[in-house]
Design goal:
By secondary structure, this protein is an alpha+beta fold. It is built from two helices and three strands.
Length: about 100
């Protein structure tokens, strides 16, 4: 298998399984695969479109799995900081 080429899928199922958008994902795109996505940080192949939410504040994110991880991690850090502030920590650190 050539790792430099993304293999095309059956055209009959493309619209059900492939998302060609590079931004602006919606609930209709969740579960589909983005064949190639190029960012300043690198290229992603066969990345799923996911829908996640923050369990603390219920904010939602729809988009590539990589960014979903950043969304969740960012919210985790934010809410840990907020809780530390409520407990009287003033140094900005969280445990």
């Amino acid at each position: 298998m050539d790792h430099d080429v993304v293999m095309p899928m059956n055209s009959a199922t493309d619209s059900d399984t492939v998302c060609t958008k590079q931004e602006g994902w919606t609930l209709e795109d969740v579960g589909k695969i983005i064949p190639v996505r190029v960012t300043p940080n690198g290229s992603y192949r066969n990345e799923p479109v996911v829908h996640v939410h923050c369990q603390m504040c219920t904010a939602e994110f729809i988009g590539p799995a990589r960014e979903a991880g950043g969304f969740l991690g960012g919210h985790e850090c934010l809410h840990a900081w907020e809780l530390a502030q409520m407990m009287g920590r003033s140094d900005g650190l969280v445990e």
